[in-house]
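[Amino acid chain]
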Amino acid sequence: MTSQSDFAKLKVHFTDEDRAILESHKYVADGIALLMGLYCEVALHSLEDPEHAIIKIVNRHHTNRDVGAPLTDHGVQLLLEFIESNKQPISCYTTMSASGEPMRSVFTIISNAGRPIGLLGVNFNMRVPFSELISTFSLFNNCAQTPASAAPPTSSNSMEDLVRNAVSGVVHQISTDASIPNHEKNKYIVFGLHENGIFDIKGSVILVAEELHLSKFTIYSYIRELKEKSN
């Protein structure tokens, strides 16, 4: 457990420059969370007041921490190690979310002229459904900003929306490609969806068939053809 003396060792008398550096890192936190999606929590800590260290947290639903929460024990140990060795101890380890799900975590120390002034922590929930992972890193994800307090969507409707949005994106891409004959367009749409992993989602074949007004057997035929070409 972290003691009051540990917090006292880490407390830093801030300059305006220190505050400006940490303020700029708030955009870094937003950017990481935007790239990695709702299953990634990003927390920015300030050493101006280690007992109320968090000054920015995105996707807080994983740990239920808020702005004003203290440094974790692990963060304190990293900072004490940095003070003793003056070396950046980038740490990647496994922890748990508030609901007991495994999270992969990494901390980096933010310094100014060799003085530690903050800590950036990134926690990724390893229970992310594969379909959500596909959605986050899909070519058709426009990285629209999501409220930091929102919980990850898990309903069947969100899965259907994911598939339909993916179909819409590939249809637009293929339909405007003049090099593909009209009678081949549906086939290339299926090829594009397959390459983006959409058919790894349960029930996606039927949804795609409905969107393209094809039979599921035609979809399976196109997928087999693509696999045969790849061999």
